[in-house]
Automatic annotation (TrEMBL):
It is a single-pass membrane protein. Residues 143-382 form the Glycosyltransferase 61 catalytic domain. Keywords: Glycoprotein, Glycosyltransferase, Membrane, Transferase, Transmembrane, Transmembrane helix. It comes from the Eukaryota. PANTHER family: GLYCOSYLTRANSFERASE, PROTEIN O-LINKED-MANNOSE BETA-1,4-N-ACETYLGLUCOSAMINYLTRANSFERASE 2. The keyword Cell membrane does not apply. The keyword Membrane applies. This is Glycosyltransferase 61 catalytic domain-containing protein. It is found in: Membrane. Pfam families: Glyco_transf_61 (PF04577). It comes from Phycomyces blakesleeanus. The chain crosses the membrane at residues 12-28. The lineage of its organism: Eukaryota, Fungi, Fungi incertae sedis, Mucoromycota, Mucoromycotina.
């Protein structure tokens, strides 16, 4: 009897396990859309035996890293990632296309497998009428790279090929993987079709689907973007200013406007992407002095200032900045709307567009969140607050290409210096440069003692103690540079406010004159220090034979940088 009960329990447990496995199997195949009727619902296609899929054909433009190809009859599946069907006797020279729009270290070439017809079975295979766009992402969790090296090149390609809202996309490769959850991105900006991905961690919305185990074929596919971005050091094809403007308009139109904000896919499926909206703090600063007096007085001008702060590279005196703005409105007669935004907990594309759409001025530390300037007003001003001793020109190119007035506002004075010993120790451990035994000397170097550069001070202390080696130099320079990049920083408010007041007056003047971006650049007011190369290549086209010029104006010479 006991044996009977024991066997019964074992049977029940076994049946339970089998049932669970069946459920998991069903859920997995549902997620990968291997159920053909479900997968094809709403998409035009014909079903053919796999060994009857037509021969592949392709035509490519460009060469090497910047090649792109239009392919007829491209198939994809989980086993190969992509393949083409050819007759047994066909002589085929395979093609491969770099799908990453970044530096050469990140290049990855999509090269479909070649399958001879006799090697295939007759399993039913959908041949889709909608075009498939094959793309790659450099770093989807990095907001700026996700936009400027990923989605916007894809958008440009789809726009150039007049993609329909039913087009599909295929994320064939991600150069820099991240295990910290799904990236806050969607291709809903340009299509309602499926976005095929290779990892479960990339399933960020209901638009994504995993590569299917059973093949799907597409009558037409576009592979690659021709190495398109605004970074002249590693891209070959420019993103035009009007393409940035169209991306902004389509993001707002498809995710925010027309009552879509409350129902858009990001808001519904990725709550993390709304964290920046929930946490935003707004301060209204109303003018105490009108622009004039009497019955004919003009109403006060309203300006929206967004402040995006971060935990890393934290601006420590934002309350002082806001207090100074409250004082200046008495003389400028400006009604300020000051939005303090936190990107650290998550901010989707839809949320970024929603928060920045009406912004005139963005004040933020250097970092990936600066990419949200894309959604600001045209000719908006971005003040990038750098740590003392650190400056980077990466954003000069994308900002001038999209038509944002960009200024690196670095403070060189002692009043802006912040020390973060924990961060310094972290960088020293990462880059493995020697430790100065004296805490007092370390503090002195990090405080820019006597105005000496941190790395020069630190190197001198190491040499004094005979513990410096030439082999340490590269690690020392890189480690201290990374510290200065990420260290907390202050804004020199005494310098900032006169500059901001002039900038706001000029903004009104440019609006009154209906000045376009080239006119603002001609007035030396569109890009700050170290911006010569960006202006020459992206705005004026006087370098690189005009190949990377984003603006339609005739080729010319820059008039000069924007100076405080």
């Amino acid at each position: 009897m006991m044996i009977f009960h024991r066997r019964t329990r074992q049977l029940v447990i076994s049946l339970g396990i089998i049932s669970l496995l069946c459920v998991l199997y069903y859920v997995f195949h549902l997620q990968t859309l291997d159920d053909q009727p479900l997968r094809m619902k709403g998409y035009a296609h014909v079903t053919l035996p796999l060994n009857h899929i037509p021969n592949a054909k392709w035509e490519c433009t460009g060469s090497d890293r910047h090649k792109s190809c239009i392919v007829e009859n491209l198939c994809i599946d989980a086993q190969t990632g992509g393949f083409i069907v050819v007759d047994d006797d066909a002589i085929v020279e395979p093609f491969k296309v770099n799908v990453i729009n970044a530096d050469t270290m990140a290049d990855w070439y999509f090269e479909p497998a070649i399958k001879r017809r006799s090697s295939l079975d007759s399993s039913p295979t959908p041949l889709m009428s909608d075009t498939l766009f094959v793309y790659g992402l450099y770093s989807p969790r990095h907001y700026a790279h996700m936009l400027f090296n990923g989605l916007i090149p894809l958008y440009k390609t789809m726009r150039n090929h007049q993609a329909k809202r039913t087009s599909w996309t295929y994320r064939a490769h991600v150069a820099m993987q991240d295990d910290h959850g799904a990236p806050l991105l969607t291709t809903r900006i340009m299509t309602d079709g499926k976005d095929i991905v290779r990892q479960g961690s990339a399933l960020s919305t209901d638009q994504q689907m995993l590569l299917p185990h059973q093949p799907i074929c597409f009558a037409k596919a576009v592979v690659g973007s021709g190495l398109a971005c605004s970074l002249t050091s590693y891209c070959h094809t420019p993103i035009l200013a009007e393409e940035y403007a169209a991306f902004r308009a389509d993001t707002l139109g498809n995710l925010v406007h027309q009552h879509l904000w409350d129902t858009n896919v990001i808001a519904k499926s990725q709550d993390q992407g709304l964290a920046c909206v929930r946490n935003m703090k707004t301060t209204f600063v109303r003018p105490t002095l009108a622009n004039g007096s009497g019955d004919g007085a003009l109403p006060p001008v309203e300006r929206t200032i967004a402040i995006i702060n971060r935990r890393s590279r934290h601006i420590t005196n934002i309350p002082e900045v806001i207090a100074a703005l409250q004082r200046t409105n008495a003389t400028l007669g400006i009604h300020y709307v000051i939005n303090e935004i936190d990107f650290d907990e998550g901010c989707s594309l839809a949320s970024s567009a929603y928060l920045l759409e009406h912004t005139d001025v963005l004040l933020t530390p250097h970092g990936s969140q600066e990419a949200a300037a894309l959604f600001m007003k045209d000719n908006g001003v971005v003040l990038s607050i750098d740590g003392r001793g650190y400056q980077e020109i990466w954003f000069h190119f994308v900002m001038t290409a999209m038509g944002r007035r960009f200024y690196n506002f670095e403070c060189h004075e002692d009043i802006c210096t912040e020390i973060d010993r924990k961060l310094f120790d972290k960088m020293r451990n990462i880059y493995k440069f020697p430790m100065i035994p004296s805490e007092e000397e370390i503090q002195g170097c990090l405080a820019w003692e006597n105005g000496v550069l941190v790395r020069d001070c630190y190197r001198a202390r190491l040499k004094e103690r005979h513990i410096y080696r030439e082999d340490d130099e590269a690690r020392l320079v890189e480690g201290i540079s990374s510290y200065l990049k990420d260290t907390p920083r202050k804004v020199n408010v005494a310098r900032l406010m006169p500059f901001l007041e002039r900038t706001l007056r000029e903004m009104s003047e440019f609006e009154h004159e209906n000045a376009d971006y080239r006119m603002i650049c001609d007035a030396k007011k569109c890009c700050g220090d170290a911006c010569e190369w960006a202006l020459e290549t992206v705005v004026y086209g006087s370098q690189l034979e005009g190949r990377m010029k984003a603006w339609p104006d005739k080729i010319g010479e820059p008039q000069g940088n924007w100076i405080e």
